[in-house]
């Protein structure tokens, strides 16, 4: 690490969800101080306060807070609302949507507090206005590069392709925009090439005899028995989905159903549309184990026969022939690499709340990679010469003068290439960390704020720990 690299790293997040950022930092063993979080929903707030309570503040609404009073951090990460950019949001006005105001609030934080590095995550649908987004961020004084990242490309059994935007404050960027783009792309390609075989779904989910699975199946069976007693009633008039299913049947070309594949009855599917869709998708799989999102129409089910899961959403009903059941709510969290055996789940967080949390989160492993890549883009020796109060020492590096002073020349890249490699933290350290106190050198330089001890994570009487079996604990740590 360069002399100027902060120990601990000051971190803040917005639209924080389950705090994948903090769990990623813990997994890498990277000393940090988590200064602030925000989320407007009650379930994420409860989970954050129970598992990753920020040191300074939790904000309920980013739109109404005073950014002047928000702590300055070196690393700022957010996954702002995806609704304006989602492909499911027909007729969207993109950045003119009301929900897009959250994005503009994050930009105001950048302009006000000037963090050294930001990482933004959002859906691929944001490509439709990506040029404008990039222009806004660059005008805020940042060198910005973008990369599509998907946990499935890292051998995880779940797809979640997302745009990751890396923004380095222009005065501390270690190289030109073109050089940073090349570095990010080549680093991601190298990681994909070394990912190894894809993990099985069974390695990232609970064993069939786990109490959470048995409880879930008991509830499903009760619904199934009631629906079966009424002959699986549907709508009185022929529903719209029947025509889609008839059209889909033409793709089957007489394929027989797999004899070893679970039927709709075996899967405890009680909804007529889901039952019909499952039988057709099993035939389409041709004997291979399949996964499909039964909450969607058959032509939008995210059907996969390669052993992986489609993108998890809050309302997805993911049926797996390998597991012979649908995914349990807590597994939506597990599949995003959260160490649930070490997490506290307040008593009010159950069922739909868990599904919402699991369907809206970032993938911990991908966030960890993004953090490593992002940290490598900062010239930390140069950053150590700038104080947190950038309005005085670094004012000249705001838009307009950034292009003159901030970016390195091509000749300087040769000497900087070795530094890029040194800045990637190891991902093999212990998952549990405590923020280290500031070093003597840091105090002498008067660069970073005085560090305090990290908060504990004690549980109250209303909280309980979720503990999978010993075998599952081992799988969750991989």
From TrEMBL:
Keywords: Methyltransferase, S-adenosyl-L-methionine, Transferase. InterPro entries: C5-MTase (IPR050750), C5_MeTfrase (IPR001525), SAM-dependent_MTases_sf (IPR029063). Residues 417-478 are annotated as: Disordered. GO terms for molecular function: methyltransferase activity. Residues 461-478 have a biased composition (Basic and acidic residues). The keyword Secreted does not apply. One of its GO terms (biological process) is methylation. Pfam families: DNA_methylase (PF00145). Residues 425-445 have a biased composition (Polar residues). This is DNA (cytosine-5-)-methyltransferase. It comes from Polarella glacialis.
């Amino acid at each position: 690490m360069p002399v100027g690299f902060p120990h601990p790293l000051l971190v803040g997040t917005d639209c924080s969800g389950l705090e994948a950022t903090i769990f990623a930092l813990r997994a890498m063993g990277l000393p940090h101080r988590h200064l602030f979080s925000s989320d407007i929903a009650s379930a994420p707030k409860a989970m954050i306060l129970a598992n990753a309570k920020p040191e300074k503040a939790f904000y309920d609404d980013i739109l109404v807070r005073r950014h002047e009073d928000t702590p300055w951090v070196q690393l700022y990460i957010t996954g702002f609302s995806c609704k304006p950019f989602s492909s499911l949001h027909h007729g969207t006005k993109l950045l003119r949507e009301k929900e897009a105001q959250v994005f503009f609030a994050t930009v105001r934080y950048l302009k006000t507090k000037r963090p050294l590095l930001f990482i933004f995550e959002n859906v691929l649908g944001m490509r439709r206005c990506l040029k404008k987004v990039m222009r806004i961020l660059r005008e805020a004084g940042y060198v910005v590069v973008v990369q599509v990242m998907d946990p499935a490309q890292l051998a995880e059994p779940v797809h979640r392709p997302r745009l990751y935007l890396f923004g380095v404050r222009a005065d501390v960027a270690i190289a030109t925009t073109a050089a940073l783009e090349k570095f990010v792309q080549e680093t991601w390609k190298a990681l994909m090439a070394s990912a190894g075989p894809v993990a099985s779904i069974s390695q990232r989910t609970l064993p069939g005899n786990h109490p959470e699975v048995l409880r879930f199946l008991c509830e499903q069976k009760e619904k199934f028995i009631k629906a079966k007693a009424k002959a699986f009633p549907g709508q009185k008039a022929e529903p719209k989905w029947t025509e889609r299913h008839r059209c889909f049947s033409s793709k089957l070309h007489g394929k027989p159903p797999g004899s070893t594949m679970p039927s709709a009855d075996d899967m405890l599917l009680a909804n007529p549309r889901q039952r019909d869709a499952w039988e057709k998708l099993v035939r389409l799989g041709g004997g291979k184990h399949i996964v499909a999102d039964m909450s969607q129409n058959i032509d939008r089910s995210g059907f996969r026969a390669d052993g992986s899961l489609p993108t998890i959403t809050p309302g997805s009903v993911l049926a797996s022939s390998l597991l012979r059941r649908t995914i349990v709510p807590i597994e939506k969290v597990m599949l995003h690499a959260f160490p649930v055996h070490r997490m506290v789940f307040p008593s009010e967080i159950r069922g739909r709340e868990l599904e919402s949390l699991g369907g809206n989160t970032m993938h911990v492993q991908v966030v960890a990679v993004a953090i490593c890549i992002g940290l490598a883009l900062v010239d930390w020796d140069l950053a150590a010469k700038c104080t947190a109060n950038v309005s005085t020492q670094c004012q000249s590096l705001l838009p307009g003068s950034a292009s003159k002073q901030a970016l390195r020349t091509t000749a300087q890249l040769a000497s900087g290439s070795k530094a890029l490699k040194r800045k990637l933290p190891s991902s093999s350290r212990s998952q549990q960390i405590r923020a280290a106190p500031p070093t003597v050198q840091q105090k002498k330089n008067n660069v970073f704020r005085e560090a305090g001890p990290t908060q504990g994570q004690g549980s109250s009487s209303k909280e309980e720990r979720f503990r999978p079996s010993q075998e599952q604990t081992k799988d969750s740590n991989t």
